[in-house]
């Protein structure tokens, strides 16, 4: 078991506020990124929100500035990660970052880092830069929270529409900007595994996207929820699975997009200048309405986000009546499996809505 980081231990990151335990090996890796050649004791760590599953800290380099958020950010390159270079945007500014970490057996951070990089390459919305990553830790550009500007909602809606512009359907199925539904590797939704691979169907085929949504999203979560489901609800979901192809009609006019994949309001933030940014993705290629349905499921987004989105990418008929509840069923099943039967009624209502509209 590696040591943990405490104030007063020369080999570990300083715990400025007390109560933080950054594993020593994680502190060492973070120091290599933010302050090459210096010991982890040069880092000042302050707890911050933003790690819903894992603990998180704001890191700054001792002596480079007064530590702690809020403050200006920089994106210093990692010697081990050339893709993180930012062309000198952070020169002359404090060296700092947003760090989150997990237990020794954590494996989700490389997948998250790959998703963040894919979203950043696609463009449209601000994505924090990946400064460094390991199996149990992820160090990102620190984006200081700031109040929204009058146009923040509009900027988010239009940026998301640009992110969702259609992908190519030719080429390598494992390329971020081309291919069929899914992704090059399986990932995570919260703490649950999320299947992405094995779908070789053409996105233009009769069961391409519909088959993916049925077999890689709804069916696994329905099976996992079996013990929570009363017999009538289980039968309801079985009927719905048989009609997913019919329920997704209309997606063909959009094609596939690069999805954030877990777009609730806690994963959208406002940083300096009122600029919107997206964090904590569960990226894959799919129908753009999946992100919109998730945004509407739990609320927290201003109406102008959606109206601005529709100005650039109008929605096809059938979204509100059928596809929105169909796409909301997946995160509802995930929440049922993570948090228990408090979500059962909403699962049942969404399934009934879809089947009722299909007749």
Question: Residue ranges: pLDDT <50 for 5 or more in a row?
Answer: 1-19, 65-94
Radius of gyration, taken over Cα atoms and rounded to an integer in Å: 21 Å
Largest sheet report: 6 strands, mixed
Number of strands: 14
As laid out across the biggest beta sheet, the strand order is 2-4-5-6-8-7
- What would the principal axes of the Cα set say about the shape? globular
- Estimate what percentage of residues fall within beta strands: 5-15%
Mean pLDDT: 84
- What is the SS-derived class? alpha+beta
Q: In the CATH scheme, what's the topology name of the largest domain?
A: Aminoglycoside 3'-phosphotransferase, Chain: A, domain 2
| Number of H/I helices | 10
Distance from first to last alpha carbon: 58 Å
CATH architectural designation of the largest domain:
Alpha-Beta Complex
Tell me the helix content: 25-40%
Topology order in helix (H) and strand (E) letters = EEEHEEEHEEHEEHHHEEEEHHHH
CATH homologous superfamily heading of the largest domain: Aminoglycoside phosphotransferase (APH), C-terminal lobe
Describe the protein in words:
It is a single chain. The radius of gyration is 21 Å and the shape is globular. Helix 3 packs across helix 8 (303-312), helix 4 (208-224) runs parallel beside helix 9 (319-339) and helix 7 (289-298) packs across helix 9. It folds into two domains: 4-140, no CATH class; 152-358, Aminoglycoside 3'-phosphotransferase, Chain: A, domain 2. It has ten helices and 14 strands. Helix content is 35%, strand content 14%. Strands 2-4-5-6-8-7 form a six-stranded mixed β-sheet, with helices on both faces. Strands 1-3 form a two-stranded antiparallel sheet. A two-stranded antiparallel sheet has the order 9-10. The model is unreliable at 1-19 and 65-94 (pLDDT under 50). With 359 residues, it is of the alpha+beta class.
